[in-house]
Structures are given as structure tokens and as C-alpha cells.
From TrEMBL:
One GO CC term on file: cytoplasm
Encoding gene, per UniProt annotation: bioA
Quaternary structure (record): Homodimer.
EC code(s) of this entry: 2.6.1.62
PROSITE patterns: AA_TRANSFER_CLASS_3 (PS00600)
Designated name of the protein: Adenosylmethionine-8-amino-7-oxononanoate aminotransferase
Catalyzed reaction equations: (8S)-8-amino-7-oxononanoate + S-adenosyl-L-methionine = S-adenosyl-4-methylsulfanyl-2-oxobutanoate + (7R,8S)-7,8-diammoniononanoate
Annotated residues for binding of substrate: W50, Y143, K266, G300, R391
Organism: Marivirga salinarum
Length: 424
């Protein structure tokens, strides 16, 4: 049997339909912008894999850091022990996070970073003796991960439908759009006035998996201000939006009112290793500072603060803050804006939007905009046939390149998108 036959016999892939799905592609090597396949193809990765490869594939600086760390300390239990990579990474992250952030808690992916944040918030109120503070407010259509807590605060749609009886109740606000702000703010006031809300969790400015839906920073600022005035803990899920994607280090950098807890992953290691981070303020930690062992935060993972993952993250961080990468982020943001301006009035485009390095366009179709819109079955192979990896979210096409992309490479992606529009 060849590799793909062996794959079919032994592996269950994520987000993959088991009947009438797409055939998997065997990747033998990845370097920079490109995936090299077993049949000799060279596919441009225009979505940074699963939005993680900030600096492209197999970056030599990150690879060198991983190899060096693997020869020194590959792992150690993080309860009772510590190590330099975890300390150095925490210090670097705190240097670019908002000033109110004071501590870093490590986990292993975006879902768990959000689970940690929710548990921190719930136990914060439990430790303070306010056990009625159990409600969570979230945006309708949000995606915070696939573990149970993360699913509970996310969109109640096809991803979570089989598990809905097991998810805790959440108060969902409609997606903020022009015209519904006053109604949303009024509803938000009513919810927090009950003094039963523990936390407000949100993807700041961009709902990624919902279709790269974007909303105004000023509106989110108002909600955070109202929430914090009532003592509600504000959790920013920056798993996707962190590390330069929106044009700033974090989407929350566009806000005046800073969240209490941050959730980070994806670009954290430059896409090289699995790692998650939840940061918080001193105030969040205060109710945990007790001689009562039952006020301990009993949460951890076997691979918490893995030294190799931390070393990869340090290398990725140094690349991120370099003058070269910051200049590239500015260039990519302008290229994306120019393409948005060009296509915004196209007759086959329902809507196009851009924020920093994120570009998305919503196609006009007979069906509603959603992840399961059937047009995705035509779009995905259309681009792959042209050796470009774009993985549409239903009828929403997005471009999210690594920061190393060149002008001629992104123009090739733009040309393919325009060709697709003309083919419809």
C-alpha cells in the first residue's frame, strides 16, 4: 500500500467528511510559503496552515531553537519545577501584552487556553464566596474551541449540535452590526445588572471561524467598560487575532479598556509546536492567594510549558518583533486593503472586509452565509488546482498569509480569486 492508502486505513482526520470528502494530499516537505507534495506539486500556503505559521514553514531560526532545546531539556513536570525557556517566554509575552497583565499560565492549545480562562473566572468568584456568579456572556456565532467549556461559549451550530445537552447555559449577544448597537448595549446592561454574570468572553474585533466577521473596536470598548464597572471578568480570546494578525500585536491594542484575561495560541510558536497561554491580572489571582488548599487552581496538563515549545515560541517572538517582520506586516496590511478596495463593489461579492493582514470576501449565493454553504465544495478544489491553499469558510474566502509572503506571491493569490469570481 502507498502512504495515502495507509492513511485511509489508520487515521481519522479532523473536520473531514468521511463520505464524499476531499482526497487527502500527501505533504513530504514544507518550506517558507510552500507545501511540497509526494506527486511533485508545490502548493502555496495562503492561510498559514491552520492560521498558525506566522513566519512560514520550517523557519531555520525556529528549527535551530527546537533542535538546541531538545538536546538540553525536552520536558519536565511543571508542578514543583521550572525552567529558563518558560520564564523567558513569559517575560517576553508580558512585555507586549497590555500593562494590566501580570502572570502567564501555560497549557497546550487554543481550546485549553480558553478552558483555563473560564475556570479561572468561575473559581475567582467561588473563592470570593460569590457562587451565584455563574453566567457567561458571549457573542452568537463565536468559536472558542472544541473542548466542552469552549464549545459552551461558542456558536450553537453544526460543530456543537451533538453535544448541546451537555453544555452549560450561556447568554448570547447577536453579532454587533450597524443599527443594533443600542439594543445590544441595553441587553448587556440588563444582564450584568443581575450581578450573576461571572465573565464576558469574546474574540476581539474578528470572529474568525464564523467567517472572519469584523466589528467596531469602539463598540467592544463600551461593553468592556460596562462589564468591568459591574465587576464582570472580561476574557479576550486572541488565539487567532494575536501576534500581528490585525496589524497590531493584539486586537485588544485597538481598545482603550483592556480585558482581564487573555487567551493565546496558534501563532505563539510560529506554528511549530503545540502551546497555549492564558494571562491574567493581579486582581484575578488575588482570591487564589490563600493557605486554604481548596482555593488552589487545580488545573494542569502533562505537557504544560513544554521546554521545546517554549523555545520555539521565543524564536518566533524574536522574529515577530524584528524590524523586518513589522515592516512586512505593514506591507501586507496595505496589499490586503488595496485588494479589498478593488473587490468591494464587485457584483458577485456580498461583502468584503479587511483588518490588518486579514482579508475576507463573502460570495453572493442562493443559500445563507454559513460554514456548511455548499459552494465551499467548488471553491476549495478550484484554488488547489492552481496550487494555492485557500480553505473557504462556506461561502467566505479569506487570505491570511505568513509574514514572509512576497508581493508577486500574494498577487498570484489575488489573480486566482479574481479568476474564481469571473468563473461563477
Amino acid at each position: 500500500m502507498n502512504w495515502l492508502e495507509r492513511d485511509s486505513d489508520s487515521i481519522w482526520h479532523p473536520f473531514t467528511q468521511l463520505v464524499n470528502g476531499f482526497e487527502h494530499i500527501m505533504v513530504e516537505k514544507a518550506e517558507g510559503m510552500y507545501l511540497h507534495t509526494s506527486d511533485g506539486r508545490k502548493i502555496m500556503d495562503a492561510i498559514s496552515s491552520w492560521w498558525v505559521n506566522l513566519h512560514g514553514h520550517s523557519h531555520p531560526k525556529i528549527a535551530e531553537a527546537v533542535a538546541k532545546q531538545a538536546q538540553n531539556l525536552e520536558h519536565v513536570i511543571f508542578a514543583g519545577f521550572t525552567h529558563a525557556p518558560a520564564i523567558e517566554l513569559a517575560e517576553k509575552l508580558l512585555s507586549i501584552l497590555p500593562e494590566n497583565q501580570s502572570k502567564i499560565f501555560y497549557s497546550d492549545n487554543g481550546s485549553t487556553a480558553n478552558e483555563v480562562a473560564l475556570k479561572m473566572a468561575f473559581q475567582y468568584w467561588y473563592n470570593k464566596g460569590y457562587e451565584k456568579r455563574r453566567k457567561v456572556i458571549a457573542f452568537d456565532g463565536a468559536y472558542h474551541g472544541d473542548t466542552f467549556g469552549a464549545m459552551a461559549v461558542g456558536d450553537r451550530g453544526p460543530f456543537s449540535a451533538p453535544f448541546s445537552p451537555f453544555l452549560f447555559d450561556v447568554e448570547f449577544l447577536p453579532m454587533p452590526v450597524n443599527g443594533n448597537e443600542d439594543e445590544l448595549i441595553q441587553k448587556f446592561y440588563q444582564l450584568v445588572d443581575t450581578e450573576q454574570v461571572a465573565a464576558f468572553i469574546f474574540e476581539p474585533l474578528v470572529l474568525g471561524s464564523a467567517g472572519m466577521k469584523m466589528y467596531d473596536a469602539k463598540f467592544l470598548d463600551k461593553l468592556i467598560n460596562i462589564a468591568q464597572d459591574k465587576g464582570v471578568i472580561c476574557i479576550a480570546d486572541e488565539v487567532f487575532t494575536g501576534f500581528g494578525r490585525t496589524g497590531k500585536h493584539f486586537a485588544s491594542d485597538y481598545l482603550e479598556n483592556k480585558p482581564d484575561i487573555f487567551c493565546l495560541s496558534k501563532g505563539l510558536t510560529g506554528g511549530t509546536m503545540a502551546l497555549g497561554v492564558t494571562s491574567c491580572t493581579d486582581e484575578i489571582m488575588e482570591p487564589y492567594k490563600s493557605t486554604d488548599i481548596m482555593k488552589t487552581f487545580f488545573h494542569g496538563h502533562s505537557f504544560t510549558a513544554n521546554p521545546i515549545a517554549c523555545a520555539a515560541s521565543i524564536a518566533s517572538f524574536e522574529l515577530l518583533v524584528s524590524e523586518e517582520t513589522q515592516s512586512q506586516i505593514v506591507k501586507i496590511s496595505q496589499w490586503q486593503k488595496d485588494f479589498h478596495d478593488k473587490l468591494s463593489s464587485h457584483p458577485k461579492v456580498q461583502n468584503s472586509r479587511v483588518l490588518g493582514t486579514i482579508f475576507a470576501l463573502e460570495l453572493k449565493t442562493e443559500a445563507d452565509t454559513s460554514y456548511v454553504n455548499e459552494v465551499r465544495h467548488k471553491l476549495y478544489p478550484f484554488f488547489l488546482e492552481r496550487d494555492i491553499l485557500l480553505r473557504p469558510l462556506g461561502n467566505v474566502i479569506y487570505i491570511l498569509p505568513p509574514y514572509i509572503i512576497k508581493k508577486e506571491e500574494i498577487e498570484k493569490v489575488y489573480e486566482a480569486v479574481e479568476e474564481m469570481l469571473e468563473s461563477l
